[in-house]
Every structure is written in C-alpha cells, then in structure tokens.
Amino acid sequence: MKWSVLVLALALGGCASVSDIKQTPPTLSVISGKKPQEYAACVVQKLASTRSASQIEPHKEGVRVIVPQKFSADPSAIFEIEDRSSGSSIKLYESMSNVPIRPGDVKKAGEDCISG
C-alpha cells in the first residue's frame, strides 16, 4: 500500500516547471560559510548517487541548482544560493513540498553541505 501511494505521489509530482516550484514555500532556508559555487558543487556531488546530473546556472548574485526528479529529467527541486559577505544564503524549493512522504535525499544533501 505504501509503495502505491509513493508511486502515485511521484506521478502527480511530475510536469512541474521551475516557476511552478518557485511558487511553493521554501523547505530549507539557511546560511552557510561556503561560497555559492562551493555549496552548489557539494549539493550536486551528494545527489550524484541518487539523481541524474543537476544543472547549475547563474542567478542574481549567486547560482541556482535545478535538481531533476529521480525517474525523469523534469525539475524536482531548486536551490537558490546567493552570495553574502561571509558565505551564502540558501533556499530550497521542492515540487512536492506538501507531500510528507517525498524523497528526502535533496533536503538531506542541502543540510549536509551547510558546513565544512
């Protein structure tokens, strides 16, 4: 039963665009001592084992990382990482932010990369 709910949630979570995902409240909002490129590289490296390649693109005063879904190239999450004088400000937006059983690998990668 749990698997069918997960598959249904993943199916419904598809087809979200970057602008759709940005309309959701952030699921992570933190400050890191790492510079934006360093933090983005850490997140991409941590997600490499569970997802296909994430896109890193310039955004405002930093970078944006677009994380694909587990089973397609459609966006699943967005990290907006902005430069600060002593590191960076990070916000994570997820397409299924209101689904409690969503995959936790993206948020965990974001949290693991905050320090050191």
Describe the structure.
The protein has one domain (2-112). Helices cover 32% and strands 30% of the residues. The chain contains four helices and five strands, in the order H-H-E-H-E-E-E-E-H. The protein has helices at 2-13, 18-22, 36-47, 105-112; strands at residues 28-32, 55-59, 62-68, 75-84, 87-94. Strands 1-5-4-3-2 form a five-stranded antiparallel beta sheet. The model is unreliable at 3-13 (pLDDT under 50).
Short description:
With 116 residues, the protein is α+β, with helices and mostly antiparallel strands. The protein has helices at residues 2-13, 18-22, 36-47, 105-112; strands spanning 28-32, 55-59, 62-68, 75-84, 87-94. A five-stranded antiparallel β-sheet has the order 1-5-4-3-2.
Order of helices and strands: HHEHEEEEH
Give the CA-based shape: globular
Uncertain regions spanning at least 5 consecutive residues: 3-13
Q: Outline the biggest β-sheet.
A: 5 strands, antiparallel
Provide tags for this entry:
5 strands; disordered N terminus; 116 residues; five-stranded antiparallel β-sheet; globular; alpha+beta
Detail the topology: elements first, then pairings.
Blueprint (H helix, E strand, L loop, with lengths): L1 H12 L4 H5 L5 E5 L3 H12 L7 E5 L2 E7 L6 E10 L2 E8 L10 H8 L4
Antiparallel strand pairs: 1-5, 2-3, 3-4, 4-5
Helix pairs in contact: 3-4
Protein name: Lipoprotein
Keywords: Signal
Organism: Pseudomonas karstica
